[in-house]
Amino acid sequence: MKDHKHVLTRRDFIRGTIGATIGTSILGLKWPQAEAKAAGSSLVTLVRHKNAVDSSKNVDNTILEKMIEQTLIKITGEKNTKDAWLSLVKPDDMIGLVPTDHLNPTHDEVVDAVKRSLIGAGIPKGRIRLAQGGPRNPQKCDSLIALPALKAHWLTGIGTVLKLYILYSGSPSRYHKSNSSKLGEIWNLPFVKGKTKLVLVDSLYPLCDKGPQPDPRYQWPYNGLIAGTDPVAVETVCLKILTEKRKAIRGEPWPLSPPPICVEAADKVYGLGTSRMEAIKIEHYGWEQDLLL
Amino acid sequence: MNGVKLNLPKTVGVWNRPDSPRVINSKNIFNYMNGAGELYLGYRFRHLEVFDYTSGNQNNILVELYFMETSDDAFGLLSLDWGGEPVSFSDFSANTSNQSLTSPTTALYGAGLLRVWSDNLYARVMAYSETSASKQAVFALGHAIAVNRKNAPQPDLVNILAPQIGSDWKLRNDRLSFFRSYLVLNSIYYLSAENILYLDHSTEAVIAPYEYISNSADRKRSQFLLVKYENHEQARKALNHFHDVYLPEYKKEFTADSTTNIPSLFKLEDGWLAYKLISNYITVVFECPDRESARQIIKKNESNLLKKEGES
User: Fold this and answer.
1) SS3 for A63-95, per residue?
2) Same-domain check for residues A23 and A55
3) d(C-alpha A81, C-alpha A84), whole Å
4) Which range marks the domain in which residue A4 is found?
5) Which of A51, A70, A210, B101 is the one with CA 20 to 30 A from A174?
């Protein structure tokens, strides 16, 4: 029998058969292929402060540090930052901080504040390193703290959490074009799997269209940090915020195009977490205006 | 190189540029903009020149000059987003103006970013922080880019699209885009993960919605797509493949010479789809609320196409 590869089309989305199509056709995997999900929580926190970024786009470090502290405590349920970090990482872990380093990068202030917070929790400075780049970076680390910046992406719909590790594949071009749906695969590489202890999204000044190139018409001071231990749940909340912002700009639905297939694939095929909003518990703190959730 | 060599000012306001630009070509574009390079390579890209204008106490102004193979390619990049304030550089004051409908928009400004289409050049001039001084500098740079360069016409394909279909449907010019790549198409209107229309640098395509004229807040839209191939055989093969992938459960109804036939019509999940092969062109309309609207949109645009072809 001739093996006809089903090509994903717009009609699959309209029919609501996208998940099955991803599993059975695009990736050549049986559906469902996902392994049992990690026992992690699908709690996603959003902490915002009206003055985190000023009108000149300068970050207020004092406010930022408080936002990170609040995020850690809410995510872990611990009483203080030190206990929160120590519930996520071991004191002797080599900890890799993984920011978005190119085109609308993670604010340096966020990376520096996380580093200071880890040191404040008793992690030796020498056990914290920047770990963005090729596969040698995660190989050198016991734990990873993902620090992506929130942005739409013209090729993948969204270019935030799941795309963050693309260089860890050693062959980023393998995940371009229609293969972007496979981005979740990278998170299951042996030297990456299970190492991500926290996903903390810099959503201080996100980009909701035309990414990854900066376009100030589509950037806005959201002044938030989005966090969780389930990368797919965090990405799903990020998607919701981008989608709502786009709707607010045009005054009508303005879906991301192309649709961010990698998010559902990360859930349904790679078992990295949940992409179902109803299964995600969102807790938000601080500034309420234009929450977009 | 088309047109006059650009001579950007060394100093604009409090900003200064380096002596020479950073030059990016198709081989190293991903080092400069990983994840965005495909956009420019989707058009016929020659090279990119980048200048960073710096100032001691102000945020930088970035100037990116994308030199494309033709004016159509540069127009295509501008056409991906008609948002912003139209700008005219036809006089030295570089004031913004509301241009007439007959005069194509060649530059748009919004929130610190100026985008310019000038012959085979597409430029982005972006102030990292928008202030009155940075806006003035951005406009001065825009003028320096556009002055003394010829005003090329819009791609012929754009002029084929009927502005109105009867009294029911109006073309949304502000959502009209010209492209050559399926990746670009997908960023405007997602069709498929694969290149099911066989788009490449030899093809020209335009997509725009027609909006139903009514007072209702719920505005019905149908997407109209027109693709020009190098020859009839390529167009036929592309339509054949499109049908196989997109409409696998339906029988094909087009023939090698279909100019006298009515469009092929299909009732899908999101409305009616119609297509027609016309010489070396394919026309497709998506998401029509009824069969007759789909037929009319194809028919009117076919009529325009044949008229334009007859004139050329």
Assistant:
1) HHHHHHHHHHHHHHCCCCHHHHHHHHCCCCCCE
2) no
3) 5
4) 1-33
5) A210
- Claim to verify: residue A263 and residue A126 sit in the same structural domain: yes
Query: ipTM strictly over 0.95?
Result: no
Q: Tell me whether residues B192 and A181 touch, CB distance under 8 A.
A: no
Both A218 and A134 in a single domain?
yes
Q: Which residues of A touch B195 (CB under 8 A)?
A: none
- CA of residue A18 relative to chain centroid, distance: 21
Contacts of A178 (CB under 8 A, 6+ apart): A8, A26, B193, B194
Is residue A212 reached through a cis peptide bond, with omega within 30 degrees of 0 on the bond before it?
A: yes
pLDDT in tens, chain B (312 residues): 444 568 899 999 999 999 999 999 999 999 999 889 999 999 999 999 999 999 998 999 999 999 999 999 999 999 999 999 999 987 544 444 444 344 678 999 999 999 999 999 999 999 999 999 999 999 999 999 999 888 899 999 999 999 999 999 999 999 999 999 999 999 999 999 999 999 999 999 999 999 999 877 777 999 999 999 999 999 999 999 999 999 999 998 766 555 557 899 999 999 999 999 999 999 999 999 999 999 999 999 999 999 998 877
B197 to chain A, minimum CA–CA distance in Å?
A: 12
CB of A122 within 8 A of CB of A91? Answer: yes
B191: chain A residues, CB-CB within 8 Å = 9-10
Q: Which residues contact B197 (CB under 8 A, 6 or more apart)?
A: B182, B185, B191, B203, B205, B227, B238, B241, B242, B282
On whether both A271 and A130 belong to a single domain, the answer is yes
The residues that bridge with B123 in the sheet, in sequence order, are B65, B116
In this structure, what token pair is assigned to residue B54? 């710096």
Kindly list the structural domains of chain B, giving each domain's residue range(s) and its CATH number in brackets, ordered by start.
Answer: 11-146 (no CATH), 156-311 (3.40.1000)
Q: Taking CB atoms and an 8 Å cutoff, what residues of chain B touch A215? A: 113
Same domain, A111 and A230: yes
